[in-house]
Amino acid sequence: MFEITELNKLLKAHQISPTKRFGQNFLINANIVGKIARSLGNTTNRNILEIGPGLGVLTISLLQKDINSLTVVEVDRKFIPILEEIKANTSKAFHLVNADALKVVEEEIISGNYTIVSNLPYNIGSLLLVKWLKKMDFVDEIIIMLQKEVADRVLAEVATAEYGRLSVLAQYICHCEKLFDVEPENFFPAPKVYSSVIKLVPKTPKIELARIENIEKACKAAFNLRRKKIKTSLKPILSNPEEELMKIGIDFNKRAEELTVDEFDKISYIM
User: Fold this and answer.
1) What is the total count of domains within the chain?
2) What's the pLDDT score for residue 1?
3) Is 56 known to sit in a ligand binding site?
4) Is 169 annotated as a binding residue?
5) Same domain, 123 and 233
6) pLDDT at residue 2 greater than cutoff 50
7) Does pLDDT of 135 surpass 60?
8) High-pLDDT (> 70) share of the chain, %
9) Distance from CA of residue 212 to its chain's centroid?
10) Percent of the chain with pLDDT strictly greater than 90
11) EC number(s) for this protein (predicted)?
12) CB within 8 A of 204, min separation 6: which ones?
């Protein structure tokens, strides 16, 4: 691990303390940082997007790889001087954006396709992931650290408690894989929960946005009333759920969590 005394010196020098509203927990284990960077494999000619770089620990590791460019988006101004210093000490193409990642239009700050690598703030992790899932025309790969509970929802199998809208969206659009879990003691301050690093690779051919939006509408209707049978929950999007579901071979007495990703896909075509 990094020496906590060194971390404290850095925080003190820049008058920084973790901000709860930004979901800040600083990753302090160099081995975990290296493991995330190595998960990228060959990065030659790749543009990397990092969200919430904070103290720049992962940023420095990414800059040590053979990449085309690195763009970092940081909402908290107190980290900007540290990131500016990192920028001044690298010969790589380094773009620093002080903005809210939820509001940024990625295609406007990055030229060409990009790979997302990030230790995401807990409070906006799932919101950012849903945003990116709708932008897969531009994304080559996503490797992110999330709260383990959110990662479990992404990877959840049908008919489990964790299975829901996020599971269906992610698995419909991408090949999803857990890389490893990260214990709370690898952060400062230590969170009360575990984290997981996951990898998402867009399926080929990439799914059209119109299909994704239909899947999302179907998921919203079904999972908003997840304890109801789909003959009831899908009434907002189907004029005659029982008849229409029978035609495509889906049991209308199923509940949302019993529908496979393929079945949600079928439903999206009859909406």
Assistant:
1) 2
2) 42
3) no
4) no
5) no
6) no
7) yes
8) 92
9) 16
10) 84
11) 2.1.1.182
12) none
